[in-house]
Amino acid sequence: MTDFLNDIRAEGIWLPDWLASAVIFAVVISVTLFAHRILFRLLARLVESKDLFWRSLVSRLQRVVRLAMLVAALSLGATAAPLTDYQAATVRHVLLIFFIILIARMAKTAKHIWMTIYLRRFRLDAEDNLLARKHVTQTRIMERVIDLLIVVVAVSACLMTFDAVRQYGVSLLASAGVAGIVVGLALQPVLKNLFAGIQLAITQPIRIDDALLVEGEWGRVEEITSTYVVLQLWDWRRLVLPLSYFIEKPFQNWTRESSALIGTVMIYLDYSVPVEAIRARVEQIAKASTLWDGRVVNVAVTDFRETVMEIRILVSASNSGRTFDLRCEVREKLIDFIRREYPAALPRMRAVMNEQPAQDRRQAAE
Hints:
The protein is α+β, with helices and mostly antiparallel strands. The chain has helices spanning about 1-10, 15-45, 50-60, 60-80, 85-120, 130-160, 165-175, 175-185, 190-205, 245-250, 275-290, 320-340, 360-365, and strands at about 210-215, 215-225, 230-235, 240, 250-255, 260-270, 290-305, 310-315. It has three domains: about 1-120, no CATH class; about 125-255, SH3 type barrels (Roll); about 260-345, Alpha-Beta Plaits. A hairpin with a 4-residue loop joins strand 3 and strand 4. Helix 4 runs antiparallel to helix 5, helix 5 (about 85-120) runs antiparallel to helix 6 and helix 6 packs antiparallel against helix 9. The N and C termini lie far apart (about 135 Å). It comes from Rhizobium bangladeshense.
């Protein structure tokens, strides 16, 4: 391109520098757009028989790759254009930063496509969604960690293109000392939650849609970000906790190994009630209920009190919500059965009153 301009000037045709630069950039842009169109037509044909990831990648990256090709071509054009050294260096520097941003965008897009296709294999709305919750949790935590790493690397690469910042960074690393301690203390909460997120993704004490009992509140894990966890409580409130909470403090996970749970119903009855009749009725209630999973139903006398005996009833269901509803159903139907069949077995307070003779009452009245 430079030789072409020199030949034109040698023949006596003179062009201003700005016009020559505009011509060069226009030619470079036209050639790049044509090459991009040809390239993506070939790529579209190549990935027709490939899996969904490659087809989606080519489709989603078409515009970003076009911009990246234009940036690279304009950088070459800036070298060939009749610009001053300062102008050419400034243009190439700006284009380099833009190119780094586009590369980071490509990486995030490829990551998003792969994780979206991967998560399509799992359904959180399934009855037994333990495997799905495991993979969704790992994927979403790692996705946020990867996004953070991509941003950090991209910003670092952009800053390193500035000589002053690069020298400052080198001197800061070399000096370390107090500055390093201050920076480390300032970043401690961020790094703490970042490593907690990685640890959660690997060990998985909690997963998406897990049923937890935290700080006296029951709820389900709605969202896990790179810094905090959102619990949707039973009354639709949201409880937000830092990631490090689930590494450092105890909590109850009702769906750690499976979603099935055993529900407990406690009832206090008079000693006169036949326990076998209560046991038979509880089994009838469980078998007739659509909530019972057919695994556990048990009735046992667990304690004797002064006036009543304590009866514990165990029933199981496929998840925590169904278990709660099944417990309520057992309570309602069992108390109705006892009230109808054994009303004397219901707890009551007894008192003995000594009647005063009628004569004593008359004397007291007088």
